[in-house]
Specification:
Elements: H1 5-14, H2 24-42, H3 73-78, E1 83-84, E2 87-88
Antiparallel strand pairs: 1-2
Helix pairs in contact: 1-2
């Protein structure tokens, strides 16, 4: 896919980016190369490839799920402007 100067200007406008007129041709070439690479990758057959969350076969180390701090809700709510039944009261913002 080949992008022209008008395409680059439109993309820059949509992205709210300011670009110099002298750089537009370079951007058009770079973006066209990127889109060409994406088109090439779309032609690869991935039917037998399983989706994965990480490119390496590793497992995440998890810590033990246990409480390590004491409950300080009373202390924190003591300085809040408004609370009720253990909840913080805030002004209504949606009608």
């Amino acid at each position: 896919m080949s992008l022209g100067p008008d395409d680059v200007k439109k993309i820059a406008h949509l992205a709210r980016l300011g670009i110099n007129e002298s750089d537009i041709e370079g951007y058009a070439d770079s973006l066209s190369s990127i889109l060409g690479l994406v088109e090439d990758m779309n032609t690869v057959n991935t039917d037998d490839v399983l989706p994965m969350a990480h490119p390496q076969d590793v497992s995440q180390r998890l810590r033990v799920d246990e409480v390590t701090e004491s409950n300080q809700r009373e202390k924190f709510q003591a300085i809040a402007p408004l609370t009720e039944d253990g909840l913080y009261l805030v002004p209504q913002v949606i009608e």
